[in-house]
Amino acid sequence: MGKRGFIFSPGGFNSVIEELSKKYLIYAPVLKVGEGRFTDTDVVRYDFVNEVADIELEKKSDYSFKEILTPLSQTLFFFTENDVKEANIDERETLVFLRSCDLNALKRLDQIYLKNGREEDYFYARIRDKVKFVLMGCEHSYEDCFCVDMGTNRADDLDFSFSVDYIDNKFKCLLKDENLSLVFANNALKEEEVIPGFVTENDTKVKLPKDVPLSIFTSDMWDEYTARCIGCGRCNYVCPTCTCYTMQDVYYTDNGKVGERRRVNASCMVDGYTNVAGGGEYRKKHGDRMRFKTMHKIYDFRKRFGYNMCVGCGRCDTVCPEYISFSNIINKVTAEIAKTDELKEVQSEN
């Protein structure tokens, strides 16, 4: 892919979006006025758009982009007594606008669904093949973000069609996809070098543990979350890297031989996630669930794939009704490990 920088007026970039809309579905963060969690509050979540004015470029999205790839409820196939029919999907390609942390989160989703075993996840792959991405630059850090310490504040080496930064009433774009060069060149004010904006420092900081001893899994630090967490699962549902799901069969007839199979998002923080046949439940306490989630985000995934699962977007901190901060949990884990190491040193000296 070549790289060319373009500068657009608002009208010129809107013309680009209008032209792209003829071929692509445009999926981007949108400000939903009055649709927030509380009365008279707003929320930023993803939706399909047709013009630049619909795209929220300033505020951080409260929800991630992942529902375009992993819908909350996805029908996989229909079945009758004699036949199985795969569910149709929209065959049009989609352009998704997202920030650096979310583009790094895409790498995690691909790792789980496409590279986590002998076979790719067919139902994920057939959607993924039709999705391209637009990198939205970050000129400043947002509340609760800790992407710098997670190493996800930049996405230069990741795959995106073009970038977009809105600065001084101009749109600045770095184009990678040469197939879009004509529509960009026809609507631009000029060509010049463009570097996507990225954050260099966050107000929220985390210190990641290098080595994790087994003692952290039995530490009483998790008891705090048994008392505080209410198991609502909001942290999982806004997280761009949570990938868990469950399967549901919906029957159209009483004999259970006609219906559909759905893949539905699941959450390790919600009741029922670890239920097994016979009524067993492996993680009943909310503190145990928090331990499982935390260690998966900053230890288990890294141990297997070489990099952390968490991308530091901070959405889980923002959405939690009990004001539980995941960035604080990471720092508490690191502090607990340091305390354990200090105790070992004292014991060895004695």
TrEMBL record:
Q: What is its EC number?
A: 1.8.-.-
Ordered alphabetically, the record's keywords are: Iron, Iron-sulfur, Metal-binding, Oxidoreductase
Q: Which InterPro entries match?
A: 4Fe4S_Fe-S-bd (IPR017896), 4Fe4S_Fe_S_CS (IPR017900), Helical_ferredxn (IPR009051), Sulphite_reductase_A (IPR014259)
Tell me where on the tree of life, at the top rank, the source sits: Bacteria
Limits of the 4Fe-4S ferredoxin-type domain: 218-250, 301-329
The residue range of the signal peptide is none
Q: Which SUPFAM superfamilies match?
A: alpha-helical ferredoxin
Could you tell me which NCBIfam families the record lists for this protein? sulfite_red_A
The molecule here is called Sulfite reductase, subunit A
Q: What gene does this protein come from?
A: asrA
